[in-house]
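Recall from the previous lesson that a structure prediction takes nothing but the amino acid sequence as input. Here we apply that procedure to AT-hook motif nuclear-localized protein 21 from Forsythia ovata. The sequence below is the only information supplied.
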Amino acid sequence: MSFLQKTQNPFVGTKIFLRQVTLHGQFKILSLSGSFLPPSAPPGATSLTIYLAGGQGQVVRGNVVGALIASGPVIIIAASFTNVAYERLHLDEEETLQMQPLVLHPSGSGGGGAV
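The prediction returns the following tokens.
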């Protein structure tokens, strides 16, 4: 789960790894995306990621584990493929050396499409 927290500095990006967090109250779904692969795919390849906005402007992101209950209509767009094969592409050594770490730049908008 990643989130931004307001401190003495304008904004500080913080990354925390938790197994499961239960959120109570009403949240708007900003984005819901994921993939479900055949059992032959490696563990962890299948997941459902959600971005939620709270009533006070906080944005929470995490992987959905367990039930997700909507209080109103939700539109889901899905696609399926036949003869799916999971292939992991290996990076060349040069590409690995050129990779840059991800830097958080907070913005005023929540991002993602409304659902």
